[in-house]
Design brief:
With 409 residues, the chain is of the alpha/beta class. It folds into 2 domains: 342 residues, TIM Barrel; 37 residues. The chain contains 14 helices and 12 strands. Strands 3, 4, 5, 6, 7 and 8 form a 6-stranded parallel β-sheet that branches. A 4-stranded parallel β-sheet has the order 10-9-11-12. The radius of gyration is 20 Å and the shape is globular.
């Protein structure tokens, strides 16, 4: 059953929310097709929003007011059926205390995702297998797969991944912005490799992931880690949110040779919309300094009060007013990466992972309401409805199904 709302006093008919969310320059025909597709985003950082004070996934928020990008009303408007909701943990010290704090944080973040589903069973359903997606979408509910971004919380005990698997995790990355105990990062501040790929412990983690049926995610890890994963993994590898180095030469992006190697092993690159990885932008040092100071405060105050959060939002809005970001990447920049990947490896090996609520979003695609524009652009580029369905969910579900099939009984 679709939610409805009154358009105005002059109208007596109640119309579906989705019918009023058609983005500009997207035809009704394309919009209705988009709503019909099963759409999954492979990297949603939205679980961070779940723990914000006075914030509800069931209420509509604004990307220009509280800076969040995903909630239930906007998912309905943008035709997003769900995706992989990430347990993200920032990289900390490689110490017993650091591991303990990260483990506890990650477990609680995973519980927040499970609590979201349990609190609203009419709208959200936990998905554990590839075959779960279609019936959940057919029932009009949002699909909730779980993933891990940064395996740091596992400490040095790879068996702990089984606890997260039992919680619902079906995809896991290895590193994030810095090297950790499992793998080299593509963006470590040292700019030097530690292991030259996966560490010995990282190789043990990969074996356990393959045994359980967890998809290995190479996003944020170095090219050498991807090489190791392609050589050692018994199932295909996923890049949950990455881009193309041929379009913009950034360490987080993947060159064409790696794209082809990924595809040759059945893997998929899910295209990112994180602006800093799409193209170079003009420096804005005053804005960067102000944002870094604000983010530092936010990290220190992990459990903020409603009043403190309101003050932080006011500071962020003031930063936007004083130091506007006038050279942000655009939807066309995002599509340049998407179309390049499609040219190199074809529609069987490309998907979508936009990094919502984790820094993703570009001019022209600010939050999930704008997602039909991707469908429209792909169709205009000559891709078929069947191709678009693969890109939106078929490919990532195929990789998940392969991991399930390869696990040890």
């Amino acid at each position: 059953m679709r939610n409805t709302y009154l358009m105005g006093a002059a109208l007596v008919a109640l119309l579906p929310i989705a019918a009023q969310a058609q983005p500009k320059n997207v035809s009704k025909q394309v919009y209705l097709l988009h709503q019909k597709l099963i759409t999954l985003d492979s990297h949603l950082d939205t679980p961070a929003s779940l723990d914000l004070p006075d914030w509800s996934i069931d209420e509509e928020h604004g990307v220009h007011s509280d800076y969040t990008q995903v909630d239930l009303p906007r998912m309905k408007k943008g035709g997003l059926d769900g995706g992989f909701w990430a347990i993200y943990t920032g990289q900390g010290q490689l110490t017993i205390e650091g591991f303990r704090k990260a483990r506890d944080f990650a477990l609680l973040r995973g519980m927040s995702i499970r609590s979201m589903v349990a609190a609203d069973p009419d709208n959200f359903t936990l998905a554990l297998e590839a075959k779960d997606a279609a019936p959940i979408a057919a029932a009009g509910k949002r699909i909730v797969y779980m993933s891990i971004e940064n395996a740091y919380p596992l400490g040095e005990d790879v068996s702990l991944i089984k606890t997260f698997y039992d919680m619902g995790v079906r995809v896991s990355g290895f590193a994030h912005f810095a090297h950790n105990q499992f793998a080299d990062s593509s963006t470590d501040p040292s700019k030097k490799p530690r292991y030259g790929g996966l560490s010995p412990l990282g190789k043990e983690l990969l074996k356990e992931m393959n045994r359980l049926g967890i998809v290995p995610d190479a996003s944020h890890s170095s090219d050498q880690v991807l090489d190791d994963l392609l050589a050692l993994s018994t199932t295909p590898v996923l890049l949950t949110h990455s881009g193309c180095k041929a379009v913009y030469d950034h360490p987080r992006n993947i060159d064409d040779d790696h794209l082809k190697a990924l595809a040759a092993k059945g893997g998929v690159i899910q295209m990112n919309a994180y602006g800093a990885y799409l193209r170079a932008s003009k420096p804005n040092p005053e804005r960067q300094k102000a944002l870094m100071a604000l983010y530092s405060q936010m990290r220190e105050d992990a459990k903020v009060s409603p009043e403190a959060r309101a003050a932080m939002l006011a500071k962020r809005q003031e930063i936007d007013r004083l130091y506007p970001d006038t050279d942000r990447p655009t939807f066309d920049d995002f599509m340049a990466h998407m179309l390049h990947a499609l040219k190199v490896v074809g529609p069987d090996h490309v998907g979508i992972g936009l990094d919502w609520d984790g820094g993703g979003g570009v001019v022209g695609m600010e939050d999930v309401v704008d997602l039909p524009k991707i469908t429209d652009a792909l169709l205009k580029a000559g891709y078929s409805e069947a191709d678009v369905q693969k890109i939106w969910s078929g490919n990532v579900l195929r990789v998940l199904a392969a991991a399930e099939a390869g696990k040890q009984k």
